[in-house]
Model the fold of this input.
Amino acid sequence: MSRPERDIVEVLETLDIAGWGGPVHTNMESSAIEALEDGRVIHFPRLAFALSTDEGRFLVPAAADAGAKNVSFDAQAGALKHAAGSAQDLAAMTAMMQRYSEHAVALVRMLLPRYADALEIGRTSFRPAEIAGRALSARKDDTRLHIDAFPSTPTGGKRILRVFTNVNPRGEGRHWRLGAPFEEVACAFVGKIPRQVPGSARVLNLLGATKASRTPYDHMMLNIHDGMKLDDAYQRDAAQNEFSFPPGSTWIAYTDKVSHAATSGQHLFEQTFYLPVRAMADPSKSPLRILERLAGRALA
Ligand SMILES: O=C(O)CCC(=O)C(=O)O
Ligand SMILES: [Fe+2]
Done:
């Protein structure tokens, strides 16, 4: 039996913006917000991140520590992590990531001004390793369909908004699968979630395993994330679609709501943002409110 296909327009929208700072048309914001909050990905086919000739040398897996695979940058602190190279290399990589972060911030502020005041800037990542064929535990394997939930970074309900740009120099796309709407995913997995052990959130936080206390919401999201990834039948049979994001293009999504899997590709930049639910145009579309409706109780 072939698995059901979703129509790509149900999960992906295209916006033709050519520059990180705009211009945008007046009606772009409301349609972008609606698409994102509904759980669609917005693709900007012409929005590229240009690297200088010198920066081109970082497009090798060895630019990141062997164990880490991704270089991570904290724009607030100016701190670069998991990068490999000389002091001069690290300074050049810092500047490159700073520039990507600034571009992503400009894009989000320009396209989504109603979020601007509440938006928190998270980590920037540079991913110079090929993602196909990596040996990872199922839980860490992003080639399996999942929604984003981070074990050490509980959000307490805040949305995870991410900007991605493919910078592959050899014409290779970033191949993603896009899955079922969040409501369907939640219904399929919520019944299987074990109860959060009383006191466990406090202990994890005291031990420094989490950056904030894991709320009942975070517990549910992590279990949905793991439940999806560990379920081979779900991975095989769930309604899904494939899309290859070409090099020289950018896309943005609420990855805590969009079921996604990245199956192949190399050389990507990514910027994470967090947005409080109250800053959404329609908070009822957040995973927090959806899960609260299903659970019949407050979760954060
Ligand atoms: O590296 C990618 O293309 C996306 C991986 C992923 O699942 C994520 O960043 O949330
Ligand atoms: Fe993800």
